[in-house]
Design brief:
The complex is a heterotrimer of chains A (172), B (183) and C (414).
Chain A (H helix, E strand, L loop, with lengths): L8 H13 L6 E4 L5 E6 L4 H11 L3 E10 L4 E9 L9 E9 L4 E3 L9 H11 L2 E3 L39
Parallel strand pairs in A: 2-5, 6-7
Antiparallel strand pairs in A: 1-2, 3-4, 4-5
Chain B lengths: L1 H23 L1 H12 L13 H7 L22 E5 L2 E2 H13 L5 E5 L1 H5 L9 E2 L9 E3 L6 H18 L3 H12 L4
Parallel strand pairs in B: 1-3, 3-5
Antiparallel strand pairs in B: 2-4
Chain C lengths: L1 H17 L2 E5 L5 E7 L10 E7 L2 E8 L7 H5 L7 H6 L6 H16 L5 H30 L2 H22 L8 E2 L2 E2 L7 H24 L2 H7 L7 H7 L4 H4 L7 H4 L20 H25 L8 H4 L4 H10 L16 E9 L2 E9 L7 E5 L1 H5 L1 H5 L9 H8 L3 H5 L1
Classes of the chains: A alpha/beta (172), B mainly alpha (183), C alpha+beta (414).
Chain lengths: 172, 183, 414
């Protein structure tokens, strides 16, 4: 585990608790400059156990669930922002990052632990193509029927751009 | 028996032709156009974010009801659609169905930069231009346009009705235009 | 027999008039009817609500959103950083300033730019002015959904006072683009504090009238009390934000939890209610307007003098821009800002908009366009309440619950 030392004493307490409980689940833990965001990297098999531990520590709702597409490294990285309503830890946001393979991205759904992730997972399914196993109702949310299966937010779905001297074809 | 049926048929057709020719004559035509131009009622279809300025235009400071227009619930009993803002693919189908349900003569105002040519979102994969879906009479630029601009648009539409008119021939041109549109 | 024949005829008529589709038979022999409350309806806004009803009671509800999906996240990957500021304003058109503050805060954290104190106070004043305007819109929509058209007219008329103040400060009615990385674009004019005081006194007087016609109105109380009760632990699990969760007993407000801009130097309170029904949600919005008036008064008294743009940006000015800045206190953007190249990394910021907590996350790879821009608006987090809060109520309660949630569809679809 990485031994990060922060200036905020509450954050140091929280990081020592994380290092103790999550030591064999997470690959890497680091914080950002403002000392309010904690990043945790984890593999896709261990994400459910990590989520259960975080729920016991008091983080009880999902603020955002989405993905970032890296076509050169052949991965799609799942990015989950988690927060808490309890007074002790409400000023910290935890970001879970998990790498999935780009050809067939599948991960188990987090709705059994955090029910607030239901509509976010539907949006990630229709924009990136990530299949969540165990989701109660996985279908498209925002897009019309013509764009189903096209995964618009991936990097190989191009839209018209205005670059000097270059002609891009529109999506149709 | 047969002579009676033909006689009744002739009076029916004759009365219809008489009414149609009276409506084209000066005093009746003026009254009709005056009545249509002072009762332009828009339907309750909020397309996108310019709807906030539309709601502000019908509020006490810029009262548009004094020009005769009142937002009403049903598309079968109104004669104006105001397309405010961006038309996405899902909303374009709804706008087309609503426009087809309205009775003739009907008018369309396209409000905002997004309805003219895409505006800020011109290269998005989910929008269409407003005049590809329904034929537009008046365009209002702005992002969002001020409520006074919307009042001016209604006044321009009223002048257009009273000068150019809504004769039957205009409706034929309208129908031919609509048939040639690509969905 | 005779009875079944007439039943068939009335069912066919119902099918034609209301576009009703019969979807199946439950075990006890009851039938469910699917109602589509579509976009061309005065009580639905820019979305479609699919409600399965059994008689008069709603059994299942499914929100069909996406009618205003304008793909802002994809568009921002093809444009420079500074061109996303007007894009981020457009979803939540009622309170535009907190959204721009959030995006610009994330950009400043990524690049390491400090903001001078006078600019922080100016941003706070404008954010609170737009918060009052946004809450008045929410109250007006709640009134018109209940049929109280005087409330609708009063709310939109009072909203014009706040818009007039914002025009005096920035020059535009609703979409300002006033906040830029490093500060703000204009300084406040000389007569601004007096005009603000006049406007706030007017709003305070009107709030007393509002109590008489709306909050103490027996019809409004019958329609909103004990309707749509949201219990605190359900609100926690579903991740609801904004005045909806403060009306259920949880005091969560990002301005107190993680203060940004000038909020750590100003005293204010957070109104919290315990019941969690529609009446409490409407009442909380009135109380928040009073708190915003308090914040604006303190900020105008305490505002320090000084620069309105950070020195890291103003040293890029050419002589003409320096002259305009010295004489008129107006910032002309140097052309280098159109091709900003922040260092590689990521940054996150959160703000409290009128409807709840908004989150902004930027991933940058060192070029002029962002690699990934993710933002979540409070209305998207509240959509889940349509699925879990409405079943069990009658159809006549649907506009009352919808209005009290203050859900704005363009904000949820982004």
């Amino acid at each position: 585990m990485s031994q990060v030392v922060a200036k905020d004493p509450d954050l140091n307490n929280l990081l020592s608790i994380f290092n103790e409980e999550l030591k064999d689940l997470a690959t890497k833990i680091y914080i950002d400059k403002t000392e309010r965001v904690i990043y945790i990297e984890v593999t896709r098999e261990k994400i459910m156990d990590l989520a259960k531990k975080l729920l016991h520590l008091g983080f009880d709702h999902v603020k955002s669930l989405s993905a970032v597409d890296y076509p050169q490294e052949k991965k799609i990285e799942l990015m989950v922002h988690i927060g808490s309503y309890l007074r002790v830890v409400r000023k910290y946001t935890v970001v879970i990052k998990s790498a999935l393979e780009r050809d067939n991205p599948r991960v188990s759904s987090l709705t059994s632990i955090w029910p607030s992730a239901e509509f976010h997972e539907r949006e990630t399914w229709e924009m990136f193509g990530v299949y969540f196993e165990g989701h109660p109702d996985l279908r498209r949310l925002l897009l019309p029927e013509e764009l189903e299966g096209r995964w618009p937010m991936r990097k190989d779905f191009r839209i018209i751009t205005r670059k000097a001297g270059e002609a891009e074809t529109p999506w149709k | 028996m047969e002579r009676g049926v033909v006689f009744i048929g002739e009076i029916d057709v004759f009365i219809k032709r008489l009414i149609r020719s009276l409506m084209e004559k000066k005093p009746v035509k003026d009254i009709l156009e005056w009545a249509i131009s002072y009762s332009l009622w828009p339907v309750h279809l909020m397309t996108s974010c310019c709807g906030v300025e539309l709601a502000g235009a019908y509020s006490p400071r810029y009262d548009l009801e004094r020009y005769g227009s009142l937002p009403f619930v049903s598309p079968r009993q109104t004669n104006l659609i105001i397309i405010e803002g961006t038309l996405t693919l899902k909303m374009a189908k709804v706008a087309r169905i609503t426009w087809e349900q309205m009775a003739d003569p009907k008018f369309v105002i396209a409000m905002g930069a997004c309805a003219i040519d895409g505006g800020l979102f011109w290269n998005s994969y989910n929008i269409v231009r407003a005049n590809e879906v329904i034929p537009v009479d008046v365009y209002i630029p702005g992002c969002p346009p001020r409520p006074e601009a919307l009042a001016r648009a209604i006044l321009m539409l009223q002048e257009k009705i009273r000068s150019v008119g809504v004769s039957r021939e205009d409706l034929e041109i309208l129908r031919r235009y609509v048939k040639n549109q690509v969905r | 027999m005779e009875v079944s024949g007439s039943q068939d005829i009335t069912q066919e008529l119902a099918r034609e008039i209301f576009r009703v589709v019969e979807t199946g038979v439950k075990e006890e022999g009851e039938r469910l009817i699917e109602l589509q409350i579509g976009p061309t309806h005065p009580g639905s806004g820019h979305m479609r609500i699919l409600a399965w009803v059994d008689g008069d009671v709603i059994v299942r509800c499914d929100p069909d959103i996406g009618f205003v999906h304008r793909t802002i996240e994809k568009l921002s990957e093809n444009r420079a950083y500074i061109k996303t500021i007007p894009l981020v304003e457009r979803p939540s058109l009622l309170d535009t300033t907190p959204m721009t503050i959030g995006y610009v805060n994330a950009l400043e954290k990524l690049m390491g730019i400090d903001v001078p104190p006078r600019a922080k106070y100016l941003r706070t004043i404008l954010a609170e002015i737009t918060r009052i305007a946004s809450h008045l819109y929410g109250i007006g929509i709640l009134a018109i959904f209940l049929g109280h058209s005087t409330g609708f007219m009063w709310a939109f008329g009072d909203r014009e006072v706040m818009i007039e103040l914002a025009t005096m400060l920035t020059g535009a009615r609703i979409t300002y683009a006033y906040v830029i990385p490093g500060g703000v674009r204009r300084d406040m004019p000389q007569n601004f504090p007096d005009a603000v005081e006049k406007g706030l006194k007017y709003i305070e007087k009107r709030l007393r009238d509002w109590e008489k016609i709306f909050l103490n109105n027996p019809v409004v109380e019958r329609r909103l009390r004990d309707v749509g009760i949201l219990k605190p632990n359900i609100a926690r699990i579903l991740g609801v934000t904004g005045p909806n969760v403060r009306a259920s007993g949880i005091d969560y407000d990002v301005r107190m939890v993680e203060p940004y801009e000038a909020y750590d130097e100003i005293d204010f309170m957070i109104p919290v209610a315990e019941e969690g029904d529609g009446y409490a949600r409407g009442l909380i919005r009135f109380k928040e307007i009073e708190q915003s008036i308090n914040i604006i008064r303190q900020a105008i008294r305490k505002i320090p003098s000084g620069e309105i743009i950070s020195p890291q940006i103003s040293r890029l000015f050419n002589p003409l821009m320096k002259k305009i800045y010295a004489e008129q206190r107006r910032v002309k953007l140097p052309s280098l800002m159109a091709t900003l190249k922040p260092p590689k990394g990521e940054a996150m910021a959160r703000v409290e908009a009128g409807r709840g907590e908004a989150l902004f996350h930027i991933v940058s790879d060192g070029s002029t366009n962002p690699y990934r821009f993710r933002f979540i608006t409070p209305s998207f987090r509240n959509v889940i309440l349509f699925k879990y809060l409405i079943p069990g109520h009658r159809i006549a309660d649907l506009p009352a619950i919808y209005g009290s949630l203050d859900y704005f569809p363009p904000e949820a679809d982004r």
